[in-house]
Structure formats: structure tokens, C-alpha cells
Amino acid sequence: MPTPSVTYCVVPIMLAALVTAGVALAADTPLVWRNGAPMPTPVGGHCAAVIGSRVLCAGGTTWQGSRKYWLRDIQAYDLATDRWENMGRLPEPIGYAVGVGTGDSLCVLGGSDGETGSARCYRLRLGRGGLSIGRLPDLPEPRVYAAGAHIGGRLYVVGGGADPNQLGTATTTLFALDLAAPERGWKTLPTACHWRTRPSRYRAMISPLRPRQNSPGPWPS
């Protein structure tokens, strides 16, 4: 398999720059792209989020020749100086986790080490003292290739699968965690999904976000 190129980091970094700068583009305003400094290691399947003026990237995978490696690396890209900095390492190799930015942190939820799926969740923060890594409650089940979001102070993890080696299966689960009371743990919410065909993991990531009209709760307010 070809070695991934440094363009893996271009889209999140450029979009992050627009968000950080608070740029509002009119329909007739041209969008200008530029290449940022390449990542020290080309990666895919990583988690990324904007924290202040930096983009924090954690975990992921990389190829060296024909061998795939699962990473623990945490790197930060400074939008102002166009430079990368090594910030530390995750407690374990994690790829294809759900990466959710909360404004002041990057949450790394689930993922895989290449052998098994994980339910473990971490919260990464950047401050004056550097990087800190905290734990969040484990997901109810291992999840890899899932999707997620931060809405109204809550984390959501939707779809995905439990086994990274079983790509033909998918789930329709929807988990939610209130960051104001993380000690209460994750809640499993109804998804209101009805499959007409055999679900793929990609449909499983999207369909639960579109519940039927007047579908029953308990959906968080």
C-alpha cells in the first residue's frame, strides 16, 4: 500500500484556521488554500480538534513500506507560526477513534489498537503547563469507525462497530455523555432507525442522527 502523503493534514488544518480566525465567507468570496507545514509523520485515522490557536492531533495510523503502525503520538500545529510540536503520547496506540473537539479539549473516544476495539475514552487539554490527559467514563461497548459530536455540553457517539476486523457489520447505537456530570456515565439513547437494506457501517454512522418525526424520547433537551 502506498505511503500516505502529508495532504492528510491539509483539510483539517485549513478549516481549523478559518474557524479560529472567525472568517465568514460570502457566496462570491473566493476561498484561497495554502499548504501548511507537513506533519512530522504522515498519519490517517487520527483525532483532531482546534484548541485556541493550535490544532491538536492524536493517535492514528501510518505505513512504513508494507507495514501498518498504530500510533500513540500527540502533535500540535500552531496556526500562527506554521510549525508542528510533539506534545507527548497517548496511554496506548489508538486509531479510528471518535475525535470530538469541545472548544478547550480533544476527546478521544473508543478506537482500536489494530487488534481489538476499545471502549476507553480520554480527554486531552492544552494549557500553559502543557498537555494534560484525563480519563472519561468508558463507552458501554467498544467502538471503532464510529462518528461523534459535541452538542449542548454533551458528547455523542453514533454507529460504528465493536471489532476492527469485522468490516461487514455495523451498529445503530447512539451513546451520550453529559460533560457537566461525567460521573453518571454514558447513556444509550434510541436511534429510531429502520433498515431497508443490509446496513453498512457508513449508513450506521449517519442514519441515527435523523430520527422519525415525533419519535419517542428520551432525547436530551
Give helix and strand order, one letter per element, not per position: HEEEEEEEEEEEEEEH
Helix content: under 10%
Mind telling me the CATH class?
Mainly Beta
Number of helices: 2
Total of domains: 1
Q: How much strand content do the residues show?
A: 25-35%
Number of strands: 14
Mean pLDDT: 82
CATH topology: Neuraminidase
Largest sheet: 4 strands, antiparallel
Which second-level CATH architecture applies? 6 Propeller
Radius of gyration: 18 Å
Amino-to-carboxy terminus distance: 46 Å
CATH superfamily: Kelch-type beta propeller
Structural class: mainly beta
Strand arrangement, largest sheet? 1-2-5-6
Low-confidence stretches: 1-24, 195-221
Please describe what this structure looks like:
This protein is mainly beta and 221 residues long. Helices cover 8% and strands 33% of the residues. The chain contains two helices and 14 strands. The protein has helices at residues 10-21, 201-206, and strands spanning 47-51, 54-58, 61-64, 67-70, 73-78, 83-89, 98-101, 105-109, 121-127, 130-136, 147-151, 154-158, 174-178, 187-189. Strands 1-2-5-6 form a four-stranded antiparallel beta sheet, with helices on one face.
Main attributes of the structure:
2 helices; 4-stranded antiparallel β-sheet; Neuraminidase; 8% helix; 33% strand; 221 residues; disordered C terminus; disordered N terminus; mainly beta
Short description:
The protein has 221 residues and is mainly beta.
